[in-house]
Design goal:
145 residues; alpha+beta; Helix Hairpins; Chitinase A, domain 3; 3 helices
Length: 145
């Protein structure tokens, strides 16, 4: 999030501001695509910067389990087994940092909520649009993945 904030504020916003200034100098702004798009992009950047600054002020880095290390808490790496016997490993993270391609799921997701507080050996049942999915909690760890 800090990297995104830095990129938006120090790199992208100054570039867009230059484009808007140059477009404004060309005269009629009502039909000037660079000006109209640039102003819209500046509003988007400013909104995202405000959001990131507020989130960074309240975020807390969690480096240890929040409770019993034999249970799933925020920051845990969990291995679950699906109905076919395939194993899947995910890390339980905050809603701002989930990225399925990096094997991170949000603690607010249906799977994340179902796992929180559970111990190894727990059966997890999730209702999905396609029906009921059954999962089995194989392991929990708190070391980096």
């Amino acid at each position: 999030m800090r990297t995104e904030l830095h990129t938006l504020w120090k790199i992208e916003r100054p570039e867009v501001t230059k484009t808007v200034s140059a477009a404004a100098a060309n005269g009629d702004r009502s039909e000037n695509g660079d000006y109209i798009y640039g102003k819209k992009r500046l509003r988007e950047i400013d909104a995202r910067v405000r959001f990131l600054r507020k989130r960074l002020d309240v975020l807390q880095i969690v480096s240890e389990p929040l409770g019993d290390p034999n249970r799933v808490w925020f920051g845990a790496w969990v291995t679950v087994e699906d109905e076919t016997g395939a194993h899947h490993e995910w890390r339980i993270v905050g809603p701002d940092e989930f990225d399925v391609s990096r094997r991170s799921i949000s603690c607010d997701s249906p799977m994340g909520r179902a796992l929180l507080g559970r111990q190894v050996g727990a059966d997890i049942t999730l209702e999905t649009p396609d029906g009921i999915d059954d999962w089995y909690l194989v392991s929990i760890r708190y070391a980096a993945g």
